[in-house]
Amino acid sequence: MPTSAPWDSLWIDLSVATMDGATMDGMATGGADAYGAVADAAVGIKDGRIAFVGRRADLPDLPEALATEVHSGQGGWMTPGLIDCHTHLVYGGNRAREFEMRLNGATYEEIARAGGGILSTVTATRAAGEEALLAATLPRLDSLLAEGVTTVEVKSGYGLDTETETRMLCVARRLAQVRPVEVRTSFLGAHALPPEFKGDPDGYIDRLCAETLPAIAEAGLADAVDAFCEGIGFSVAQTRRVFETARRLGLPVKLHAEQLSNLGGAKLVAEFGGLSADHIEHLDEDGVAAMAAAGTVAVLLPGAFYALRETRMPPVDLLRRHGVPMALSTDNNPGTSPVCSLLLMLSMGCTFFRLTPAEALAGVTRHAARALGLSDRGVVAPGKRADLAVWRIEHPAELAYAIGLNPCMAVVNGGVARRPQGPAGVL
Description:
Blueprint: E1 7-17, E2 37-46, E3 49-55, H1 63-66, E4 67-80, E5 82-84, H2 96-103, H3 108-113, H4 118-127, H5 130-145, E6 149-155, H6 162-178, E7 182-190, H7 201-218, E8 224-229, H8 236-248, E9 255-257, H9 265-271, E10 276-279, H10 285-294, E11 297-300, H11 302-307, H12 316-322, E12 326-328, H13 342-353, H14 357-363, H15 366-371, E13 388-391, H16 398-401, E14 408-413, E15 416-418
Parallel strand pairs: 1-4, 5-6, 6-7, 7-8, 8-9, 9-10, 10-11, 11-12
Antiparallel strand pairs: 1-2, 2-3, 4-13, 13-14, 14-15
Helix pairs in contact: 5-6, 7-8, 9-10, 13-14
Binding site for 4-imidazolone-5-propanoate: 95, 158, 191, 259, 336
Enzyme class: hydrolase
Pathway: Amino-acid degradation; L-histidine degradation into L-glutamate; N-formimidoyl-L-glutamate from L-histidine: step 3/3
């Protein structure tokens, strides 16, 4: 409670889904306490941090005496600000034409011969300057922000050379300067084989480890290092070399793993104490056990599952049994998940992967924060960063239930309230 200077702001007339693991029970079964709910609540904010969470009846004084600003939640719900923990937001061009070609019966090889596939995005991204990349990225980001997203991860990986990978990550850093959002960046140089190294993946990994990754680290442009460990990507041995370089440079790792086959990528990233293993449709129990022992988060990506018409689901029951946290994300990218709605991923996570609505919401709040190595957000609790979203709903399950409806009525970024589609401070 304030003892001298008042709180900067106070939210009343709402319920709060704290998503705080210390106060939650029955998540997997959708129990009454699955959201860490506080009814008729109040949330006080001071210096960009949450100062109080509790029942309004427990406030010692009238709201106007406790805070400089008092906001009404209009009978809705407050949650932590949403976190999109796996995106490829920064890229040039798009691949709508090859999407159309696929639907008209073209094979992968035919699309590649016509200039499609990931290398078409590499070509477009290499040709785009920093301002063009920024302009192309902002509409995608704005769509996420309108849905209560307050933190977003952005990967490189469409440059595949030092110059373009650097440019992509510079643009990702700039997003936080021009929009009310926190950005975490991941270097994904080991995403695909560039055309100049055709037939020589080891040579490309040599350059990545000796030149590109050290340059990115020295410039402070990456918060983590990612890779695509897959038959059409890079082998376990090649990925290990990337991770060893990351470890020497003091950068945590994460991995695109077990999406199309089981190469043991999840066990590899767990061996390095990795933040997350992402996709994981082909993950087995040995991999799950390794992730559980290492504290590695499973990031589920239903948008790619949908776009690729996959049929093999991630082993959700195994993940539950071993206590592996499950995050959800858009995987926004031009080829296999052109998704700009994290709320849609809540619905797809429940419908496709059989998550409960409470598990899905945890997957875009506290578990998504953990997948980025962030312990200061993702729950509504005293001392945490005041990144919050306020929703015009009667129950948190509505966030996963409704399709195509955005009930976000307000967002708080580091204590600053704004309307979901407006600039900071307009509330």
